[in-house]
Write a structure and sequence with these properties.
Elements lengths: L9 H21 L6 H8 L3 H7 L3 H26 L6 H19 L34 H13 L4 H24 L8 H19 L9
Helix pairs in contact: 1-2, 1-4, 2-3, 4-6, 5-7, 5-8, 6-7, 7-8
Length: 219
């Protein structure tokens, strides 16, 4: 379980935002493994009892932080896909830019290192977690699957072609995230070698995904 109490008032929502903001700063300073509820409560300037009112343990705090970041990724990637849907090479450009997009977020977004925590990107959210993702990502599918489906809708015809493209894009998104996450395991700036590995993989997979694929708007 992630949230013990779903916030119904602005004050409660603001308290959760403060808790997750505190958790994000701690993740940046000491890493996911060393985050504790006591550290989060101190950083968020709330009592440990208040924290436990919303989150039963450190695991739930990290899940919530990861899901918040995933919701932001969904909003930005989906908007970028739909902005490029009438652009020749739009899907290729989106795929090639994805590793550096993640790199930028790892470097600039507090607590983004938690995004891969507990496979939050790859597994469907639990019922009590959907509040954290909003309506766009609140379905029974994993966030990766939902993001892939949104991107596929921007470029492929509805039906079998969109389903096939979404399947390819889902695996692409999961593996590129895993590679970039690995690059930042030991350094806040990321390993240049491992970032290059992620970019090479993305370029190779983009060629494979796009081989024989003609965007719907070009037909």
């Amino acid at each position: 379980m992630s949230l013990r109490t779903k916030p119904t008032q602005a004050r409660s929502a603001a308290r959760i935002d403060g808790i997750l903001g505190g958790a994000a700063s701690i993740v940046d300073e000491v890493g996911v493994e060393r985050l504790s509820t006591n550290l989060v409560a101190t950083r968020a300037d709330c009592s440990i009892g208040t924290l436990y009112r919303y989150f039963p343990d450190r695991h739930a705090v990290l899940r919530a932080l990861a899901l918040r970041h995933i919701a932001d990724v969904h909003a930005e990637v989906s908007a970028s896909a739909h902005a490029r849907q009438g652009e020749i090479g739009g899907l290729e450009s989106l795929l090639l830019c994805y590793p550096q997009y993640l790199v930028r977020r790892f470097r600039t977004q507090p607590g983004f290192r938690a995004i891969a925590y507990d496979h939050a990107f790859e597994l469907p959210p639990r019922d009590d977690e959907r509040y954290l993702l909003g309506h766009a990502l609140g379905s029974d599918r994993s966030p990766a699957a939902q993001i892939a489906a949104d991107v596929a809708r921007a470029f492929a015809r509805p039906g079998a072609e969109a389903v096939a493209l979404a399947s390819d894009l889902e695996l692409f998104a999961i593996l590129v995230l895993a590679l970039v996450d690995r690059a930042f395991a030991a350094s806040p700036e990321g390993s240049a070698t491992l970032i290059e590995d992620a970019e090479r993989y993305a370029a190779r997979e983009a060629r494979r995904i796009l081989s024989g694929f003609e965007p719907a708007f070009a037909r």
